[in-house]
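Hey, can you fold this one?
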Amino acid sequence: MRVFLARHHGFCSGVKQAVELAEKVAQEARETGGTVWTLGPLIHNRRVVAGLEALGVRTATALDDIPPGDTLILPSHGAPPVFYEQAEARGLKVVDATCPLVRKVQKTARELRERGYDLVLVGEPQHTEVEGVVGWAGGDGVRVIETVDEARALPAMGKAAVVSQTTQRPEDVRRIADVVREKSGEVRLRPTLCPVTSDRQKEARELAERVDVLIVVGGRESANTRRLVDVGREMGRRVHQVENYEEIDPSWFRPGDVVGVAAGTSTPDWITEEVVARMKEIEPNTEPEETKKVAAPPEASPERGATSPAGPEGPAEPGNGPAPEGGPSSPDGDGEKAVSQENALTVPGTFEPGARVTGTVVKVSPTEALLDIGHKSEAVMPLSEISRQKISSPEEVLKEGQVVEALVVRLDDEGHPILSRKRIEEEEAWKRLAEARDQNLTIEAPVTALVKGGLVANVGTRGFIPASQVGLGFIQDLSQYVGRTLKVKVLEVDRGERKVILSEKQHLEEEQSRAKEELLGSLTEGETRTGEVRRVADYGAFVDIGGIDGLLHVSEMSWRRVKDPREIVKEGDRVEVRVLKVDRERGRVSLGLKQVEGDPWADVPKRFPVGSLVSGKVVSVADFGAFVELDDGVEGLVHVSQLSDKRVGHPSDLVKVGDELRVKVLKVNPAERRISLSARGAEEEMDRREIRKFLRDANEGAAVTIGDLVGDVFRDAGLGERKNAGSRKKN
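Sure. Predicted structure:
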């Protein structure tokens, strides 16, 4: 089989803009704690929308579903102006993700109506883009049609203008415009088609000319994807539309088929690439030698042949994706006729397709295993049906004598049961996943690949872990997880869509919450713990003490004044802290750093006794005085009356923050952590000390004492005689 991929695929610029905008708004909302909504799907691709939901972008069906204050992203296909008005009236923050080309159609339609033209809008009446354009055009005087027959039924018009939904086919719009021209005196045809969708339709036509089968990848709600399907069918090709690789049915293809793959503009590259990779893995199941050996199940069409493995991770779900008109049915029958593995019964001696049987491996060859299941002949288990894991030989999984459970897929021409162990594994995997989701169980998920938007894990089927659900914070490089086994929670299981969404983040948060509860129960106030500084804010720091981020307030960091917590700690520091308070109801812990260092006030009376002269730095000036730091965590107050022996208007007239001051300790009160200081008293004390020193030095260095000198002065002044006279009176 040869596979050709259309030259252009992936998001168009409008869809890419909308998705990137939604991712950005979701990231901002996670940081601020808000909630983000879209009114209907942002784009017509369920897997992309599911990925956005995993990032926190919710989908609402009506504005009333969105709480006031939340953020609303308008979809890429636009919305009528009434939605803007209603959203603003409801108090929503509106983010407009409308495609620029769609916005151009809206503007064009409004201008034409304002100029008095009857407006003919070529498009799907129920499509949201069309509804939005009608709203911008004012509603009245707008006729929405989709076919030439509908155009012929239009009434005569004075002057008319023709615009179109951006995804319409150019030839359809031209034919309708020709009919409208016959019914109007003046007709204006305004080009409002999206050039990207037009180019892809052209490429699909060129591709269809070269292939036998055309696979169109895109959402079933996507108008531009449906246009590609129409192109292929008009060319007479076998056309199948799929939303992902798991919907591909190997029975669609015949030996030697040339297959083309085209994609709509709302299909990301990675989905298209998965489809191409799957196509290259498929081996046509109608090869002569295989047809001779294995008969088709009763429900299958004669040309179907045997069932082949499907999908990189295993078989496609029966009935996934509707078959086109005249196309083949699903591998196990159409719709409700398909064999239901979930409801199959294990009946001894029953070997009809769908029955569960237990058998013993009797022979293992490079391509298959033979089992004894009590049937008249041995059952065959092909290599492709042995395991969901990729194996090159049955011997990697099965050994002779091993007892295994299997599902009867069909009977071959000779009546030998064809068994599948892989489908049993898949069935059990889906049940385990549903149970894990319903019971909030943690499961192990080996990571097998890195894809755009997250990781792929093998959980018995293909599981997806969005990037936002890996780790507890933003992970720059996800490739480091490939090959590792993660413990995850199951967020979503949709077997019909074959979708499994997993989250390591929820498991880690649960573990963190459990550790936090255990730690809260064991913490006691007054104990000392070692922790790591996680975050520093203006008011303090958060310290992880083993599962809880306790608050180390700036006031508890040091005994001295601290303006900025970053003066004391930084992120990543290991610190020893004291548990000050434990609030178990609110899950909060208050920590202290200065308490571990010891209280500097414990020996203040010894270090700063009353009457001592000390030096300090002015750290604050108030109306009533100045605060002077004598040591780390020890401050005293110099009252304004103690600043100077002169009258002082305001303390700032004499001192400022940062000044060095010599002060005298007047009073110490350790219980209230107060010290009264005096700058004036320090000066007086220093003067007295200078005088005493001078007098002491003078007495030690002179033969005649000061007393002698002073005595002569008193005597010369007659003071000595008065003193003697006084003495005589007493006598």
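Residues 535 and 542 are 5 Å apart (CA to CA). Let me know if you want another pass with a different chain boundary.
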